[in-house]
Write a structure and sequence with these properties.
With 322 residues, the protein is an alpha/beta fold. It has two domains: 181 residues, Rossmann fold (3-Layer(aba) Sandwich); 114 residues, Phosphofructokinase domain (Rossmann fold, 3-Layer(aba) Sandwich). The protein is 43% helix and 18% strand. The protein is built from eleven helices and eleven strands. The strands form two sheets. It has a seven-stranded mixed sheet, with helices on both faces. A four-stranded parallel sheet has the order 7-8-6-9, with helices on both faces. Strand 10 and strand 11 form a beta hairpin. It starts with a strand and ends with a helix. The structure holds 6-O-phosphono-beta-D-fructofuranose.
Amino acid sequence: MKKIAVLTSGGDAPGMNACVRAVVRTALKSDVQVTGICRGFQGMIEGDFTPLSHLSVSNIIHRGGTFLKTARSKDFLTPEGRKVAFANLQKEGIEGVVVIGGDGSFRGAMTLNTEFGIPVIGCPGTIDNDLFGTDSTIGYDTAVNTVVQAVDKIRDTADAHNRLFFVEVMGRDAGFIALRSGIASGAETVLIPETTTYVNSLIDTLEKGWKNHKSSAIIIVAEGDESGGAYELAKSVGSKFSHWETKVTVLGHIQRGGSPSAFDRVLASGLGNKAVVELLKGETNKMVGLHHKNFVLTPFSMATKHHNKINSQLLELVNVLS
Ligand code: F6P
């Protein structure tokens, strides 16, 4: 290969810039040119390309967001859109693509490969950590740290006022952010989509805490939990406690921004490097991931079909320690 492209797609995640940097610098070391595709698959359709040099990825390792910009492209879901996208890749002389994104982006990459035969390798970039084939996705560690910092602050005011707080976190239909941040912030309990939420047992737990003289309580709720989210819970559970005033905080997009943690920078650098190495070796239609400290490949079909499994020991830990 003489020229490859890199794009970021779907929801941005802290560490995407570090990953692009690694892709560019690894490719250039092998005398392979790199084109940046702006705004993900939408930019591929619109021909929004930019040449990337060693210097164009200087000073970005510490920056959140993605300097290539990102999008969720509806046009790429159509055969017409994909035809135009492939024609643009050919015009530009691109022989392989590194896609940094989540499961939706990998489905797009898979289709591109199946329909036009262009080699594609993916790097898992999403705060949700919901991809099978990697212990951690780029951005997940930073997002968890952001939640923990926020909950630490909420705890101060919750305690000062004797309040019950429902804190809603992101994760789409997965509870990884909720579970990890719940343990790290000492939450009373964590409600996640992977387990059934029993409102009565939640009320029991809170009552026990009250009897044990706890002055405040924090419940972390994953946005995809079947309970319907923090506001619904505040209505159904909060109304049972006259001694605690109930408050809701929805952390929202604050979880997606900010400077990536050291862990995410190292992860993103390793994944970006491995993606290019494997692409140049002739691999395609696979995601690179971190498994037991090694960078490994998983077919897109598996990475997008299964979720990572929730660690039941961690789940148990929340309840034991609350
Ligand atoms: O996939 C990342 C994520 O932040 C999810 O946790 C969340 O459900 C979704 O994206 C929000 O998407 P948007 O930024 O398009 O509202």
